[in-house]
Design a protein that fits this description.
This is DUF1311 domain-containing protein. The protein is an all-alpha fold and about 130 residues long. It is about 80% helix and about 0% strand. Helix 2 packs antiparallel against helix 3 and helix 2 runs parallel beside helix 4.
Length: about 130
């Protein structure tokens, strides 16, 4: 877990320093491993923000009993996602593709979770 935070910090620190004075990253057609890693991190950041938005909307509509279950379920899901994707971090440790694999895993699982949360939101909204 600490490695994930260190990786995230180093990725953004490096890209911030590298990107000063540069045009915005073109993620439509990344050409280098560094560009693919940066784009994967940006994709995950965008999807994670959407996840948080949908989650907060659900929590705001739930009764106290259900709210506690939702919070518990979401915390558990985050542990599963991070542990699952941590395998990719270990598999590719030391390789330049590791950030791409890690962020792609997190993005895909988060997109699936957003679909699940939107189904829950529909249920809560219809009540």
């Amino acid at each position: 877990m600490r490695n994930s935070f260190l990786l995230l910090f180093l990725t953004f620190a490096f890209t911030s320093a590298w990107g000063q004075g540069q045009a915005k990253q073109n993620c439509e057609d990344p050409q280098t491993q560094l560009e693919m890693n940066i784009c994967a991190a940006e994709d995950f950041k965008r999807v994670d923000a959407e996840l948080n938005k949908v989650y907060k909307e659900i929590v705001s509509k739930l009764e106290p009993n259900s709210k506690g279950l939702m919070v518990k379920a979401q915390k558990s899901w985050l542990v599963v996602r991070d542990n699952h994707c941590g395998l990719y971090e270990q598999f590719y440790q030391g390789g330049s593709i590791m950030p791409l694999m890690l962020y792609t895993c997190k993005t895909e699982l988060t997109q699936n979770r957003i679909k699940e949360l939107r189904m829950i939101l529909r249920e809560v909204t219809e009540e």
